[in-house]
Amino acid sequence: MRLHLTVGATRPGTRGRNATIAAFVVLAAMVPAGAVVAADQSVDVSLPYTCTLPSGEVDAAVRVSASLPARVEVGEAIRATDVETSVELSEEAVKKLTEKEGGAVSAATRLTVDVAQGDSTAQALWRGSANPQPVPATGPLTLTTTGDVPTVTGQDDGDLTFTAGALGVDLALTGTAPDSDPAPLTLECTPGKDAAALLATVGVGDDPGGPDGSPTASSTASPSGTPGRDEGTTGDGQDKDAPEVADRPAAEADARPAAPPCKYDDGYPAGPMSLNAYVAGYANVRKQNAAALIPPFCTMLEQGSPEFEPYPDWSGGVIRQHSTGDLYNNGRKESMPFKATFLTFRFMPAEATMVLEQTGPLTVDSLGATDFVFTSTDTYIRVPLVLRVIKLEVDGTPLNVGPTCRTSGSLKSPEPDSAKFPGDHLVLHGRGEQNSGEPATGYQLLSGGPLTGEVTIPAFRGCSNAGENLDRLFTAAVSGSGNYIKQMQGQTCYAVAEVPNPDECTEDRQPLKVPVPER
């Protein structure tokens, strides 16, 4: 990571200059630099699809991009990274989505990817979600989703292919008038008849091909499958040699990091529907091209009663739920302090200690659709948060930033419903799906899961060292828009249950599950 700053004139005086220079050195320590590894191969494939709407079929242009290794060892998990799925709907299709102009739409995609090695095949489901965006008055609508995808492990030597198959696109529409939200709908899409749907080929083990390493004919897979199948579900005729599909390696899944206390007490008594849960994740700072690890912190939640609105023909209905909550740390509405360590200029160790402070109500709003067999839910968590810097150290020497060094206001996210939710606040979105009788995938308030968002970091104020104002330096190095956030919420504990569930709660009614941060 490189820190590019332009230094203007400073006040005379060695002490002032040293404080300013030291500030420049430690500003990069606000976030630790992540390791950057060049991708072995890039996927960027555009395909024609046909999607089914209630009013008929429409054409869509689908683009899939990702990064994959060119070759791995036998038994080594293959993880696609930087996965994006873009779906462009024509102006005609957009008009068919909603009868009213305006409003916003959020999307989730479920791309079935056939993985094949020789004659053995399996399927992986590449899921993605997108923040709400305005529905254009004219012209096409492009929805771009991102998300983590399951790993694939080849069981033997030989090329392994990834081929795009059926695509499900779940849309949640928001109207411009209160209580005017149209019912969510799902587009079922299939590749065009002559579409070349091969996404990538990854070599496994020793290269069995010729000098060019080209894949053999037997390593090609044809698109098939149905959206909504669980990760790890295999195609017809799978045997023990089929590629293994898994969410993440078992060693990572079993990891349980240390976590602070998360327990209702006299200072924060439990209500009739009280839940508690841990949250952990990463937050990017775009200017630094790096991500800060936010270790597990406690959240207290009061689950609201769900409201069910049936469709006119009782074929299903819409579910709405409003809940509230707080960050909680020893009586304060804030995260645990977290540190970011960095070797500035590759030799100068610097460490920053920070806290996220809650400055207003935390709300959780879920909107779901069900046909009594399959249920999909979009959840939005809103909370105003200020980033406070507690202390900085350069090479073990403290640099005083004062007791009031913080952002001038809350972190600010794009708000899909600003009329109902005014003011600056963080917005995190989670998408969950569940087939009747099966565990939920994605995010659900009770079971947890990934929450993502994007924020603008405001300017800093109140930062000073021995009379030297550091506000402009912090602002120049850190503040700005386009900062991606991904948080993982763990399974909640129903803290007021007469007998706590041992799979969800410890004996003293704290959350049993501590999430592992994921990029």
Outline the structure in words.
With 519 residues, the protein is mainly β. Helices cover 6% and strands 46% of the residues. It contains 4 helices and 33 strands. It has helices at residues 14-27, 91-97, 250-253, 471-478; strands at 41-53, 56-68, 71-72, 77-78, 81-89, 104-117, 120-129, 133-134, 141-146, 151-153, 160-174, 185-191, 198-204, 244-246, 274-285, 290-302, 307-310, 317-328, 338-344, 348-358, 362-370, 374-383, 385-394, 397-399, 406-407, 426-435, 441-442, 449-457, 460-461, 464-465, 468-469, 480-489, 493-494. The strands form 6 sheets. Strands 1, 2, 3, 5, 6, 7, 8, 9, 11, 12 and 13 form an 11-stranded mixed sheet that branches. The longest helix has 14 residues, at 14-27. Residues 1-39, 210-238, 248-256 and 342-347 have low confidence and may be disordered.
Q: How many strand segments? A: 33
Q: Which range does the strand content fall in?
A: over 45%
Largest sheet geometry = 11 strands, mixed
Anisotropy-based shape: globular
Structural class: mainly beta
By DSSP (H or I, 4+ residues per run), the number of helices equals 4
Q: Which percent range fits the helix content?
A: under 10%
The chain-level mean pLDDT equals 78
Unreliable stretches = 1-39, 210-238, 248-256, 342-347
* Distance, first to last CA: 18 Å
